């Protein structure tokens, strides 16, 4: 059997559509799917931006308030401090949640882009359609992509600007990755030190592992991975359930691996 390469992201996109099919037909029209995906994209973007803001604040606290192995806060005579290892480990967990949010947003954007491509009509823009319907898309009239089959630019300025925008949007993830590298190196340094307590070293070690797993998670979520058909599940969970009695090939299946 030929092996296929499918990403986890692709599986989640397929799972979205198969779940939506379980609803009544009125919930599975193009208009309704586009409305759902527009709302999901808005919510996912807001959630991811909030997490990015929290990560940025964590970086500022870790770099400005850190004194050796402590994070110290001094406000008008009031002083408080916590071990830097614990704070960095918590920031590592926040980085992991940010990674999950990024993967979620990536799936939603891909689903909406695919759904938008299914409705092809000259002069019709799905983004402007969402804007007319009252969705919170404040840049629809500012994007360079347009649907017009009768006019073509001599110089592809629209395609160039669109590609430049996508490149710039992707480049915004570099600071997020840089924060992850910062967390990993700082906690790795704490693990190697002998002047901190064992619980702090263990916490820093788990923090390093959390950040490392976050990078691995994001990579494996998006790249195609080798997959094969689950023959046993197809036979017994699907084909066998179609018959009220034993499936005609059930005896043969029982003698096969």
Indicate the topology.
Layout: E1 4-6, H1 8-20, H2 30-64, E2 66-67, E3 70-75, E4 78-83, H3 84-117, H4 126-132, H5 157-171, H6 173-192, H7 198-222, E5 225-227, H8 231-239, H9 250-254
Antiparallel strand pairs: 1-5, 2-3, 3-4
Helix pairs in contact: 1-3, 2-3, 3-6, 3-7, 6-7
Short description:
This protein has helices at 8-20, 30-64, 84-117, 126-132, 157-171, 173-192, 198-222, 231-239, 250-254; strands spanning 4-6, 66-67, 70-75, 78-83, 225-227.
Describe this entry's structure for a reader.
The chain has 257 residues and is mostly helical. Helices cover 63% and strands 8% of the residues. It is built from nine helices and five strands. It has helices spanning 8-20, 30-64, 84-117, 126-132, 157-171, 173-192, 198-222, 231-239, 250-254; strands at 4-6, 66-67, 70-75, 78-83, 225-227. The strands form two sheets. A three-stranded antiparallel beta sheet has the order 2-3-4. The chain has a two-stranded antiparallel sheet with strand order 1-5. Helix 1 crosses helix 3 (84-117), helix 2 runs antiparallel to helix 3 (84-117) and helix 3 (84-117) packs parallel to helix 7 (198-222). The radius of gyration is 25 Å and the shape is extended.
